[in-house]
Design brief:
By secondary structure, the protein is an all-alpha fold. It has 19 helices and two strands. The longest helix has 33 residues, at 35-67.
Amino acid sequence: MGTHCNEISRGFAFAPFDLTYRYRGLEPIVVDLPISQLRLLLQKQQNCYEKCSALTQLLSLFTSLKNSWKNDKVIETELYNWMTTNRFEPEMIFRIVYNERNHVKFASLLAFFYMRGIGTNVNAEEAFHFSYFAASKGDLIGQNDVACCYQFGTGTIKNERKAFYWFRKCAKEGNVAGIFNLGSCYYHGIGTTERHDKAFDCFLKAAEAGFGAAQGCVGFCYRHGKGTKPDLKTALYWYEQASNSGNAQAQLKLAYCYQQGIGLKKRRRICRKTIYKVGEKYGLGIKKNDVTGFYWHLQSAKCGNARGQNNVARSYKSGQGTVRDVHEAIRYYRQAISQGGNSHVYSELKSLLLNEWW
């Protein structure tokens, strides 16, 4: 009996990636294979099929998270959760991905593994190398990542002109993160001439696609007239959009607008009904809303923002916008301190502990 082992596993999950025989657990043609050995071979192939099918899921998860603009810490956590759920050791996954390093999609994933130290030691140079390989093959994730490496000098010599080049390249292909980063380059003059008008256009395009950080930047541009005419109502709209997207900085800015009653005097001409509807949503034309301000500070704090945690602690300490609660104030002060809070945070906590703990 002559048997093609790849015929046995026809329909193999990773066929699109041309995985070699050795990673499939397959052999060349086997002649007169005994039944007992054939059973072992089939079992081996089935195990490999299941592993490679799971690896396809991992690649899909990584791509989805990247395209959803999650930060690297969130992506790393999700990948580890996937490995735990599927009972894979990070070192084993790293080896499998490394062996497929010449495939573009795996190169971007491998670069992330090196950058975050997943299944291997952190190696920024290797991360840059594989990001560049993927970028040069047209992978948009790789292009955005290699641009970030050039911008900050991570794993390579800092080169802002090259960073701008790669951000613009992936932005032209519609990569939303690339569009946002291109806007940042125009705004700060990174690798190009400072152009707030072009920066605003990029921010707005990314914001309309749902990119939280870009929504916050659009709000900032409207509030301060950067690259567009000042428009407080529209600014607060975009701050709210960014806040609802989970952007911690925007939540702080929105909280500040509510607590300070920004722009209220300019909106008193609005009829009371409109004042109530628009005011509750945007903080316009109403008395400053400490409760709403506290809510957005709390959302920022829950996202791990140290300033948000400090502001929540102050609100609990003073009872501004919420019920006064010394225990909660202490808890949020400690959270802010654990993230490197400044001396003012330490002194505020010390004062609270000395004067009101008991």
